[in-house]
Amino acid sequence: MRTFGKATAAAVVLAVGGAALAGCGASGGDEAGDAKTVKLVTHDSFAASKSVLKEFEKQSGYKVQLVKGGDAGKAVNQAVLTKDNPQGDVFFGIDNTLLSRGLDEGLFTPYEAKGLSGVPAEFQLDKAEHRVTPVDYGDICVNYDKAYFEQHDIAPPKTFGDLVKPQYKGLLVTENSATSSPGLAFQLGTIAEYGKGGWQDYWKKLKANDVEVVDGWEQAYYERFSGAAGSKGDKPLVVSYASSPPAEVMAKKPAPKEAPTGVATGTCFRQTEFAGLLKGAANEKGGKALLDFLISKKFQEDLPLQMFVNPVVEGAKVPELFTKYGQKIDEPKTVAPADISKNREQWIKQWSSLVVK
């Protein structure tokens, strides 16, 4: 999903030791697969603590090599293009908005990860075949910069309907549905809200209200959103996560009474991320061990403050910072996986023609 700040990324670099961190392709090791290395293909926002990845190395004997491929949407596209010669052993970061594409393309080898019984059925969207393993979930929502709205004496938006009102004209930045999983999730949220016959008119109104569209989450949040620490952006509204506010608090000492950013709770779409063993993986044994580890208590409890997502395993503890400053969404928008599978490409094309062309 997303990495807030530099500290978490640095932890990953330290954790993998001598293994190279590749950008869009694997580097280092044996071309046929290094028996001591397991390659994890993922999006740019993957992060884990040094101690956690060291624990996996100690348990399994494998070092983790990251193969990062941009935003989740781009990473999935690249995985599809290279499926006959996969970049690694495990793919992490395909979510429910893109899952059907990965399954239809035959990206994954079925494997029932150890500990899967501790994951509620609502997250196991491929339970019959176990081609993917649920790892985390979060809610895509519009975030707002509290200071901006206080200074301008404007109430922040709460719902999708609010975003098309004149007082929010030119204030929102969102991600491209065709290249970004948060962008697609936000679009699906509007489809859930307005229906298959009404979402297009909503987006026409949003475009008329000068919504800005960028390629990916990191650009939207860190470059355009005024509420992100260190950002020079001027947009006080951004499509991000319900868990973004605690990230803005984490490095502040003393901790403030509340986060500087808020969440428009009526704009949220539930997103679940999965990992799967890539078909044709050079190190299938290592890949299976890594999948087991991703739903272990150790990794699950590390997730909230590394990638600011919720663990899927029952009983995994969530830190107080996450619960105190994060926003719990009781009624997120959802779209049935079958509907996403059937309509996703058409919806993206329609969205593109309405908003970016």
Overall residue-averaged pLDDT value: 89
Number of helices: 13
Termini, distance in Å?
A: 27 Å
Instruction: Return the string of H and E elements.
Output: HEHEHEHEEHEHHEHEHEHHEHH
> What gyration radius follows from the Cα positions, in whole Å?
20 Å
How many E strands? 10
Largest sheet: 10 strands, mixed
Strand content: 15-25%
User: Helix- and strand-based class?
Assistant: alpha/beta
Based on CA inertia axes, which overall geometry fits? globular
Helix fraction bin:
25-40%
- Contiguous low-pLDDT stretches (5 residues minimum) are 5-33
Describe this structure in words.
The protein contains 13 helices and ten strands. Strands 1, 2, 3, 4, 5, 6, 7, 8, 9 and 10 form a ten-stranded mixed beta sheet that branches. Helix 1 packs parallel to helix 2, helix 6 packs across helix 7 and helix 7 runs parallel beside helix 13. It starts with 6 loop residues before the first helix and ends with a helix. About 10% of the residues have low confidence.
